[in-house]
């Protein structure tokens, strides 16, 4: 890597939508020009600018998958279930090892002198305010999952811990309600704390450094330049980027499918609208149409505004639950749950010799695969909005801010539901289906019709921002790293995301969604482990600010 900051390099980066570094930066000396392998033309008045190999292979495979899944729904459903069971039952340790490595690398960079490196060059300034930045970080990374699992997961862990079932975390605490509640919250926070954001942080920081400091395309292949060198422009790079497209699409489809399932359940709960596949398909189609409008508006007007709307609605709902729910228990539970998480973290993160294998297979392995399959999407998105931040600032924000908000959310919603079961003896909340438990919990609080409606709106808006952000990211990968590719391409990918979500829901439901995430998350875990080395090598060559 040569220290090269020429006007030609600056003009090239700027012309392809990637700003040139501001101040000292160590650009990689390569003859590759961003977009040189692209097909750039206009057909029927529609401009296109596509990477010839990555777009062609990924789009054809995805379209074939959607067609086969829709045509052979009964035949593919058992295949999805079998795939999920095999991968989580035999290779869960790969996910756990990978998750631990990502967290340790991220924390190590925070504490090391490499944390002084600034994304975008030594004199780069942030593109977004802290408020806008935090909103986009949170909405992109956790939205629909918090709504779907915020009540259901703590209640599920509480129930299995109390009964001593096979799926109980760390063996459970049979018959002990207080210990079961503590274990349930610690296990939930484990799944929503440092580990998912560790994966996002590694991918996001890697992409940001290689694009904004090194002058390489904003694609996953760029992370591997220290390992593969100029070979990243050939088939090794094509394979990496194509895997990133698959991982992103199926990770997104899982979230969109969960969102459609919960929104349909909520509409049935409030308005008696039939909770059927037809309703979910109509929801996906309608929300995809809204996402298309947001895609056309762009990041500044579309994604940022919807993310801020998300944050406002989520904050209001969170405050409501805290105020009308068991306020003191939530306030004290936030700190006690963090403590329980810290105490149980070593045992929960242990990848080998677990006695609670059923818990690891059914919960942790799926979550880790889901987070890792989401990491190209979330990582690339937060890379695009984090230019101008220092490495230390980036990692602290990405690791801690969303994690603490997630802990507060889970404590408020999950803690309230558990309190309803333990102190009020309300069994209906625990007996409800997973996608109904949020509405069942809100139904026991005042103004339930209003708050349940807000919950449905939140699911839908999170759905839109996920689809919107995901299409921007996938478009960048399939456009050879360009971040200013024609908007019709982003619209194409937004439509494809909705198509995959529909295919998976009709072709196997939740099992199909989980199997898709695990299948794409496994190879990407290995890819990202090698990517950690590339990130450290890149940071070591960068100038550091005071």
UniProtKB/TrEMBL annotation:
The chain crosses the membrane at residues 53-72, 92-111, 131-152, 197-216, 237-260, 280-299, 311-335, 365-383, 395-418, 438-464, 492-516, 522-540. Belongs to the BCCT transporter (TC 2.A.15) family. It is a multi-pass membrane protein. Its main location: membrane. It is found in: Cell membrane. This is BCCT family transporter. Keywords: Cell membrane, Membrane, Transmembrane, Transmembrane helix, Transport. It comes from the Bacteria. Residues 1-20 are annotated as: Disordered.
């Amino acid at each position: 890597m040569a220290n090269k900051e020429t006007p030609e390099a600056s003009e090239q980066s700027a012309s392809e939508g990637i700003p040139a570094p501001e101040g000292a930066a160590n650009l990689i000396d390569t003859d590759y020009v961003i977009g040189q392998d692209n097909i750039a033309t206009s057909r029927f008045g529609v401009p296109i600018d596509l990477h010839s190999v990555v777009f062609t292979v990924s789009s054809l495979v995805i379209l074939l998958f959607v067609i086969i899944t829709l045509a052979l729904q009964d035949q593919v459903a058992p295949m999805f279930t079998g795939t999920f069971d095999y991968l989580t039952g035999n290779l869960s340790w790969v996910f756990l090892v990978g998750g631990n490595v990502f967290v340790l690398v991220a924390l190590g960079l925070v504490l090391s002198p490499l944390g002084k490196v600034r994304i975008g060059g030594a004199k780069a300034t942030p593109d977004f305010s802290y408020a806008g930045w935090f909103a986009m970080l949170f909405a992109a990374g956790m939205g629909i999952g918090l709504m779907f699992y915020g009540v259901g997961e703590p209640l599920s862990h509480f129930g299995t811990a109390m009964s001593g079932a096979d799926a109980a975390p760390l063996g459970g605490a049979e018959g002990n309600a207080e210990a079961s509640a503590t274990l349930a919250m610690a296990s939930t926070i484990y799944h929503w704390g440092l580990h998912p954001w560790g994966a996002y942080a590694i991918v996001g920081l890697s992409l940001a450094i290689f694009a904004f400091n090194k002058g390489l395309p904003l694609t996953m292949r760029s992370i591997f330049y220290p390992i593969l060198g100029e070979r990243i422009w050939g088939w090794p790079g094509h394979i990496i980027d194509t895997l990133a497209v698959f991982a992103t699409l199926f990770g997104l489809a899982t979230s969109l499918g969960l969102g459609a399932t919960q929104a349909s359940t909520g509409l049935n709960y409030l308005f008696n609208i039939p909770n059927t596949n037809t309703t979910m398909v109509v929801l996906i189609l309608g929300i995809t149409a809204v996402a298309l409008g947001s895609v056309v508006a762009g990041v500044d007007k579309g994604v940022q505004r919807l993310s801020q709307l998300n944050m406002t609605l989520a904050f209001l709902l969170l405050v409501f639950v805290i105020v009308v729910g068991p306020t003191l228990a939530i306030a004290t539970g936030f700190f006690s749950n963090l403590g329980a998480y810290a105490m149980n973290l070593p045992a929960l993160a242990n990848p080998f010799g677990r006695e609670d294998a059923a818990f690891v297979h059914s919960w942790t392995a799926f979550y880790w695969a889901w987070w890792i399959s989401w990491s190209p999407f979330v990582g690339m998105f937060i890379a695009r909005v984090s230019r101008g931040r220092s490495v230390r600032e980036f990692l602290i924000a990405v690791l801690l801010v969303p994690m603490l908000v997630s802990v507060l959310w889970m404590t408020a919603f999950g803690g309230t539901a558990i309190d309803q079961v333990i102190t009020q003896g309300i069994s209906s909340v625990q007996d409800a289906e997973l996608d109904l438990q949020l509405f069942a919990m809100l139904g026991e609080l005042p103004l339930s019709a209003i708050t349940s409606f807000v919950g449905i709106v939140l699911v839908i808006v999170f759905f839109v921002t996920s689809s919107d952000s995901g299409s921007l990211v996938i478009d960048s990968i399939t456009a050879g790293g360009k971040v200013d590719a024609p908007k019709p391409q982003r619209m194409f990918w937004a439509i494809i995301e909705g198509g995959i979500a529909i295919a998976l829901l009709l072709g196997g439901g939740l099992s199909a969604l989980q199997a898709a995430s695990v299948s794409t998350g496994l190879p990407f875990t290995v890819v990202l482990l090698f990517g950690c080395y590339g990130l450290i090598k890149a940071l070591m060559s960068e100038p550091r600010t005071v």
